[in-house]
Amino acid sequence: MSTGKLKIDWAAQYMPVLASIKKQFEKDKPFKGMTIGMALHVEAKTANLVQTLAAGGAKVYITGCNPLSTQDDVAAALNEVKNVHCYAKRGCTVDEYYAAIEQVLDAAPSITIDDGMDLIHYLHTKRRELLKKVIGGCEETTTGIHRLRAMAAEKKLEFPVVAVNDTPMKRFFDNVHGTGESALSSIMITTNTLIAGKYLVVAGYGYCGRGLAQKAHGLGAKVVVTEVDPRRALEAHMDGYHVMTMDQAAEIGDIFVTTTGNTSVIGKDHFGKLKAGAILANAGHFNVEIDIAWLAKHADSTVERDGIITYILKGKPVHVLAEGRLVNLATPKGMGHPIEVMDLSFALQALCARYIAEQGDSLKGGVYDVPQEIDEQVARLKLASLGLSIDELSAAQKKYQCSWDIGT
Q1: First and final CA of the chain: distance in angstroms?
Q2: Does the annotation place 298 within a ligand binding site?
Q3: CB within 8 A of 98, min separation 6: which ones?
């Protein structure tokens, strides 16, 4: 058995929610006659989502959504699955990256599933002749949702897209626990350095930043949070973390992790203030949060190790992990989010894809929330897989909850 298939099978045993959905899809064939185009991180957990969609009757065409996040052996194993075509490869150039997106779109997908919105962007800008064939899509991550909402605000989004990232079951588990654990795991395994006792700077206190701060604090780090939103900054302060500007944090931080989805969060104004040996990592989607171009231009020299580029700035080393790309996947040993977390996220993706297959033709172009019943269904399936039970409202409680005329 190939190493890729072994990885896929290993992940499958920890994905009971997706497995139950796959059984239902095998019976119902919700995607019969449909083509699904995907741009996701191609690794073992994603492969189980792909197999679930194929089991539902879809022809699936997939490529990567990050040049460094593909596991080549998993990509090869996917190409052995009936009705699946994978074009992803690790370490591709920008031209190769978009050529693979072209190959996915050549299949004229009915449904798109994106992580970062590159597939949808390319459809709307380069392959507009295919738009009329698309029923709708799903988007996995915060950065992609930001881009989609900006596109929708300008009335440029021409088909419905479900914001899978923005539903509670995604934010509370994938973003908080998934990003928090996997980013720190990759930093530790890549650098072999200690977290405890160090100043760890988290840029951005959204769901990903909160999870990262929580997990780092649990490992004994002295956590610093930088923010632009006064409410989130106050929340971080009340949660027990140091809150300051990046200018201030640059002088004391040992490890920096960006989670904002924005550009130049750590840039030219900060590099000169960093300690010798500061470690910089990005847990956002694109490689724009750390100004790598400035470092490359102004460094006296560079030293490259596995997953680390050291820039020497006036004799001072600054270490950047994974080329400033998604640290939990783009480092050589990065495995991405824990399997059990992605079981929930990919269960949402599978059910939202079915929702688009069934309802997409009746929806206008725009960004749509995950239907609450889908979010709750995934939670209930997970509880059942854990052998856990919860209470139900009585008829009297339901009546009370919906009333307005019952007082003290």
Answers
A1: 67
A2: no
A3: 122
Could you count the other beta carbons within 10 Å of the beta carbon of residue 192?
7
DSSP symbol at 360: G
Residues 6+ apart with CB under 8 A from 107: 35, 37, 59, 61, 85
207 is in an annotated binding site: yes
304 marked among binding-site residues = no
- State the pTM of this model: 0.90
Q: Is 177 annotated as a binding residue?
A: no
Asked if residues 215 and 190 have their Cβ atoms less than 8 Å apart, the reply is no
What are the structural domains of the chain? 3-170+337-385 (3.40.50.1480), 177-330 (3.40.50.720)
Question: In degrees to the nearest 10, what's the CA dihedral of 240, 245, 250, 252?
Answer: -40
> Is 319 among the annotated ligand-binding positions?
no
State how far the Cα of 67 lies from the Cα of 325, in Å rounded to an integer: 9
Among 210, 212, 163, which residue's Cα sits nearest to residue 187? 212
Residue 337 annotated as lining a ligand binding site: yes
Consult the annotation and say whether 122 binds a ligand: no
Reported as a single tens digit per residue, the pLDDT across 54-110 is 999 999 999 999 998 999 999 999 999 999 999 999 999 999 999 999 999 999 999
Q: Tell whether 211 is in a known binding site.
A: yes
Residue 283 among known ligand-binding residues: yes
Nearest Cα to Cα of residue 190 among 198, 180, 182: 182
